[in-house]
Write a structure and sequence with these properties.
The chain is an alpha/beta fold. The protein folds into two domains: about 80 residues, Arc Repressor Mutant, subunit A, CATH 1.10.10; about 160 residues, Restriction Endonuclease (3-Layer(aba) Sandwich), CATH 3.40.91. It has a five-stranded mixed β-sheet. A three-stranded antiparallel β-sheet has the order 1-3-2.
Length: about 250
Amino acid sequence: MNVPQKIKILRFVAEQGVATVEDIQKSLPGNLSLNSIRVTLYHLGLAHTKFGHIPHGVWYVDNQKLLHQLKTYFPSLPDMQVRKVHLYLIPHTLGMNSIRIILENTPEINIVEWWSERHLQALQNGRRMGFSLHRMPDALFWRKRSDGTRQMFFVEYERTLKSPSRYRDLFQFYANRDDVLKRNVLYICENDILRSELEKIERSLVSAGKLESAGLYFQFITLEDFFARYSSNNRKTEEEKCVKLSN
């Protein structure tokens, strides 16, 4: 089915929660102008609000009927619901938008499926893969290997440091999952201080005998290093890609 551009825009905003006009431009193939995207957003009837110094503010879905339109083109999507936009969460959401855009456009890997947190929240309990509404990753994605098989990754974006006990519980939760292996939990940290603290907590769990080994389940990387590594002009061989994304 040929999906109209406006529906692709609606899906990105619905799945991510909020998005800027520039986010949407980067998420789409081709070279749509910012003005044409903004006009499409108005015609769709999406809501928007000012946020900081972002041109044209941030956009979101506040009409349930718009979400129902997605099912016509994407029948396998879960039934997402309109949710209140919390201003304090917008920086985290915009960060996740950038992470998704980088990963879906990098030549490093071939992503064949992406589940945002909104997607996961919309799934029925039995389909959430063992996650609850209070404990789920910021995103899941599946990449296609060169041999045609798929590999799943969990994405956690850390902007601020939470309590050590929260990380200890979460690290052990991931380590006990059958689908966590070969460092397929990506912790993308806002800065090097956060990355160092998370690595320290991982080592403490290993010392206490609560994790089998450091570097077995998790990859910790700063946001700056992530952007540098997976930028669209940073091309590497399939072997080099697998070192970072499967070992």
